[in-house]
Amino acid sequence: MQLNLFNNDKPIEMKKENRIISGYTIYNAEQHRRTKRSDLPSLYPDLPEKKYDIIYADPPWDYGGKMQFDRSGKKDVNANWEKNIFISAANFQYPTLTTKEMMRIPIAEIAKDDCLLFMWVTNPHLAQGLELAKAWGFEYRTVGFVWDKMVHNPGQYTMSYCELCLIFKRGRIPRPRGARNVKQLIRLPRGKHSEKPLEVLKNIEEMFPTQDRVELFARGKPENWDVWGLDVREEYKD
C-alpha cells in the first residue's frame, strides 16, 4: 500500500486528548532521518572525460514523497498506534533525483555520435523515461530487456512483476556488432533494493563486445566497464 505524503492525501487520523494524530505525524521524524541526501555541492560528480559507444543507466527515480508502509499504518489495524509502523521509500536507500534534475546532467557530452543508451525505467516513470532520454539527446527505439523478478509488488491496477530496460539511440547502432540472439526476457529473483541483474550487463557485452561502455548511477565496478555515480561500492563488485 502506498501513501503520498506530499500530494494532499488524506492522512490516517484519530483523536487523542483533543489532538488529531496521524500516521504521518508518527513517522515524519523517522522519514527525515532516514532520507539519503547527497553532500556534494552539485547534483553528481563530474562526468568522465571520455565518450562512449554504450551507456547503461539505472536512474535514481524520485517518487515525490510516496511511502510504503505495512498494515500497522492502517487505523483499523493499529487504532491506538501501539505498534511500530514499518515504512520504506526509495530515498531511504540512495539520494533520488527528479526528472528535471536528471535532465540537467549533460549525458550527451559523454556520448559518441553513434551511441546506444540502455536505461532502466520503473513502470510509473515510463513517460518520464522517454522525456529524460530525449533531453540527453537520444531517440527511443525499443524494449531491450524485460526483467521478471519472480516476486510481485502490490500495484494500484495489477500485480507488478516486471521492470523494463529501454533502448535509445543516437546516430547509428555502434559497430562492429556482436551477438544478435540475446533474449529479451530475463527471469531472475530480485536481490538488494534497486539492484539490477548482472546478466543484463553481460548480455550488453555480448551484443557490443569491443565498444567503450559506461554504467551511470552505478553501484558496482564490473570488469571492462567504466562507472559513474554516488553509490559505487566494493561489495557490489562483480
Would you give an account of this structure?
Residues 1-18, 34-41, 88-92 and 234-238 have low confidence and may be disordered. With 238 residues, the chain is of the alpha/beta class. It folds into two domains: 1-34 and 63-93, no CATH class; 52-62 and 97-236, Vaccinia Virus protein VP39 (Rossmann fold). The protein has helices at residues 23-34, 99-103, 126-135, 198-207; strands spanning 2-4, 13-16, 19-22, 52-57, 66-69, 87-88, 111-121, 139-153, 160-170, 185-187, 213-216, 226-228. Helices cover 16% and strands 29% of the residues. The protein has a seven-stranded mixed β-sheet with strand order 10-8-9-7-4-11-12. The chain is built from four helices and twelve strands.
Number of continuous helical runs: 4
What is the C-alpha radius of gyration, as a whole number of Å? 20 Å
Amino-to-carboxy terminus distance: 34 Å
**Low-confidence residue ranges:** 1-18, 34-41, 88-92, 234-238
Q: Could you name the CATH class of the largest domain?
A: Alpha Beta
Biggest β-sheet, characterized? 7 strands, mixed
CATH architecture of the largest domain: 3-Layer(aba) Sandwich
Key terms:
12 strands, disordered N terminus, disordered C terminus, Rossmann fold, alpha/beta, globular, 2 domains, 238 residues, three-stranded antiparallel β-sheet
Concise account of the structure shown:
The chain is of the alpha/beta class and 238 residues long. It contains 4 helices and 12 strands.
